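ARCHIVE CARD
Drawer: 12
Card no.: 0347
Subject: one protein chain, sequence and derived structure
Cross-reference: see card 0346
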Amino acid sequence: MRLVLTAAAFAMAAACSPSVAAPETETAEITVTAPAEETRVAAVLSFAEWCGSCKKLDPKVKAVRAANTFDGVEFFTLDYTKKDRDAYFADAATIGVEDTMRELFPKKVKTGAVILIDLASGDIISIVNSKMGEAEIKQAIEDAAALT
C-alpha cells in the first residue's frame, strides 16, 4: 500500500511540475564580469529563479544564442532571485549599466526580460520579453547590433 501511495505522490508531483525547462542558472551562482572592450550592446537578462516569464524566455534566448553570432553583443544576467536590490545594481554597475537599470526600475526590479542597452550612451535600444518567439528575439538583437 505504501508503495502505491508513494508512486501516486511522485506521479502527482511530476504532473504539477513546470512544463518549461528551468534555466541552468538555478543550481549555479551567477557571476557578472565587465564587458569585453569590443562590446557595443549589452543584452541584460533581468532574471529570478521564481519568475515564470524567465523560465519561458531563458530557453528561447539560449537557443537564439546557440544558433547565431552577434558581433558586438554580449549577454549578461542580473540575478534578482534573492530580491537583493543592492547586489542586483552592483552587478549592473560591473556591466556599466547601473544608471540605465536604476532608471528602468526606480522602485521595483522587474524580471523576465532582456534589455538591449547601447553601452556607449546607456540608452535602451529595445526590450525582449517572453511572449516573443525565437525569430523575433534574433531580429531584436540583430537590430540592436546594427544601431551601434
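Annotation on reverse: Helices lie at 2-16, 52-67, 85-95, 98-104, 134-147. Residues 13 and 102 are 39 Å apart (CA to CA).
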